[in-house]
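Justification of computing resources. Each target in the renewal requires a structure prediction run like the one illustrated here; the chain below, 224 residues long, is used simply to show the kind of job we budget for.
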Amino acid sequence: MYSGPVAAHAYYKLAVDGKPDVIVIFSPNHTGRGSALAIMNEGAWRTPLGNVEIDTQTANQILSESRIIDADERAHAYEHSIELQLPFLQYLYGSAFKFVPICFLMQDLESSREIGQAVAKALSGKNALVIASTDMTHYEPQERAEKKDKMAINAAIKMDEEQYYSAVESYGISTCGYGPTIAAMAAAKALNAKKAQLLCYKTSGDITGDFSAVVGYASIAFTK
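Resulting structure tokens:
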């Protein structure tokens, strides 16, 4: 109920952009289970809208391009932030796409960049989409959350991974998926994205009316 209306801005933009064949989804690892950087390279995920198959070929290409990703389904077994994107995608595309999930417990700048660049190599020449799933500031007053999140958003719009990482570290921005966001920026640039656009920014306070302790959400599009 909080993140959905913000995410919908990104999915509306995707709806008018045509259907990708493969979608790579990055997310943080909230549970601490499994490998530090974990991909699944076989099987399917089931939602109430049906099954979505993992693109085994693309997943294995990513594994061959990166020295630091492991194939480990344990990291995905109880993680919510990738699966939450699938019903949106199924609503747009039905089951006519495949996906690759990558979960980040380790979120340092260099590792995140390496993942993004490995994914870009694996997606080269493919009709592909990369999504990073994350919240922004957690449980701070509205004014402070907006100020912190604006710094991160401005760095993301510049597609500057170092500035983004520095903002998160220096100002204690409690975004749960800064590594996935950096990886998405790195992949976008390697795949020749030229433009970044903030589509929407809101907090949970905009839904509840309680601005004393909010969580921030943003939709940002990176496009060629």
